Amino acid sequence: MKVKLEKVTIQTKKPTEAINVTPQVKKIVEGSSIKNGLVNIISLHTSAGIAVTEGLSCLEEDIFFILDKLIPKEGSYHHARYLDSYGRLGINAHTHLKSILTGMSTFFPIQNGKMVMSGTQTIYFLEFDGPLCRTFCVQVLGE
Amino acid sequence: MKVKLEKVTIQTKKPTEAINVTPQVKKIVEGSSIKNGLVNIISLHTSAGIAVTEGLSCLEEDIFFILDKLIPKEGSYHHARYLDSYGRLGINAHTHLKSILTGMSTFFPIQNGKMVMSGTQTIYFLEFDGPLCRTFCVQVLGE
Amino acid sequence: MKVKLEKVTIQTKKPTEAINVTPQVKKIVEGSSIKNGLVNIISLHTSAGIAVTEGLSCLEEDIFFILDKLIPKEGSYHHARYLDSYGRLGINAHTHLKSILTGMSTFFPIQNGKMVMSGTQTIYFLEFDGPLCRTFCVQVLGE
In whole angstroms, what is the distance from residue B116 CA to residue B42 CA? Predict the structure, then answer.
């Protein structure tokens, strides 16, 4: 069994942003020499998400539109108080909650050295609290 | 390490439908000769979901009831416009967004050749945009 | 390839409760002798969740606050009827639906014998239907 782990760093540029990371993930899988197994994609943050959907800019906008509707930026959040560990008010409860709804990781099978996914499936890193420097792991396991 | 991948095709018959795929997944696991490891269940679509809940028809109905309440079919979606790649209006934004909320994959451990899950846990393929022919992967990894 | 599976039992004490299980998961990983691989954390229930967010009590409260807003306890649920298998009314539809939204499992990579996660990432077992005795699996795979 082989296990390969790469960390990918991206700089987000806007408060919210859906970044298509599929090409980077595919490149790591195809460069791993692992023919059959699994690829895991895991964000290392609690105010960002990982999601899979069709790769269309209108859908990227709809993700943030619906999440804002479900979990508005302004709300009676318990996190909206002075936090010693922050040295300031907690103002981003909504970003953490959005991350819980979308999830922060996904995975796909690998067969004959290629990811098994359909043509419409696109892996997105979802920034909810940008702009920030962000890191996600791409882990390839198999043989 | 052994890796076995099977694709399962199902024909959904209604616009929304919760299909219990647990028996098919268990059969693949038990036929794999893998004694200890992991089984991954992954949909290859962006307008369908995979979820685990108690296997009751009333709960199946509640999944669609609550998702329709949170993400109505009719809404001011950016996807609701003419799309060159479709050659028509995007009319199914809500189905993609529901898929992001439920997720499109799940996994369970395998021990002594059996899936480790409780009696109430039931794996569902959730059709949000049917009727369609759908495919999901069942991947068994282990030894 | 090594595969190790431990079941962890916890007794929840309140109707809703976010229990930080990160120390227990780390201990199992570090005691597994597996240096590189994957750790899976999977709840064996359908009215509880697993989520990852920053380890702050105010955020724990916000998780239940927002889920109650999205999926109220009282609603026109199909599950709210007499169920032969229960011998009583189904009164916890909202707990099953919350579990579907948060998900019931997560995973992290293992590198050099340690979980790869950021300092703010905290793994929570989310009780939606307590108090109850609950079990989750911690599975370590790798070499």
Answer: 18
Specify the 3-state DSSP secondary structure of A107. strand
Q: Where are the alpha helices (DSSP H) in chain A?
A: 22-30, 57-70, 93-102
Q: What is the ipTM of this complex?
A: 0.96
Task: Provide the 8-state DSSP code for B119.
Answer: T
Q: Does C70 touch chain A (CB under 8 A)?
A: yes
pTM over 0.90: yes
pLDDT in tens, C23-67: 999 999 999 999 999 999 999 999 999 999 999 999 999 999 999
Whole-angstrom distance, CA of residue A68 vs CA of residue A53: 18
User: What's the token pair of residue C48?
Assistant: 């509880």
- For residue A104, the chain B residue with the least C-alpha distance is B103
**Residues in CB range of B23: below 8 A, 6 or more apart:** none
B45, B70, B105 ranked by CB distance to A107: nearest = B105
Give me B29's structure tokens.
């696991």
CB C95 within 8 A of CB C128: yes
Please report, to the nearest 10 degrees, the dihedral formed by the alpha carbons of residues C53, C57, C59, C65 taken in order.
130
| Start-end of H helices in chain B | 22-30, 57-70, 93-102
* Residues 39-58 (A) with a CB less than 8 A from some CB of C: 40, 42, 44-47
In 3D, which of C70, B81, C45, C75 has the Cα closest to residue A69?
Answer: C70
Tokens (6 digits) for A27: 């490149």
**C45: phi then psi, degrees, rounded to nearest 5:** -130, 165
User: Given a cut of 90, is residue B106 above it in pLDDT?
Assistant: yes
Where chain A has pLDDT below 50, the residues are none
> Would you call B14 helix, strand, or coil by DSSP?
coil
Q: Which of A52, A64, A126 to mutate to test the interface with B (most CBs of B within 10 A)?
A: A52
Q: Is C133 exposed, middle or buried (0-12, 13-18, 19+ CB in 10 A)?
A: exposed
Q: Do C8 and C135 form a contact (C-beta atoms < 8 A)?
A: yes
Question: Given the DSSP bridges, would you call strands A2-11 and B105-111 parallel, antiparallel or unpaired?
Answer: unpaired
CB atoms within 10 A of CB C110: 24
A4: β partners: A140
Q: 3-state DSSP helix/strand/coil percent for chain B, to nearest 5?
A: 25, 40, 35
CA distance A57 to chain C (A): 24
pLDDT mean over B125-139: 98
B24 in helix, strand or coil?
Answer: helix
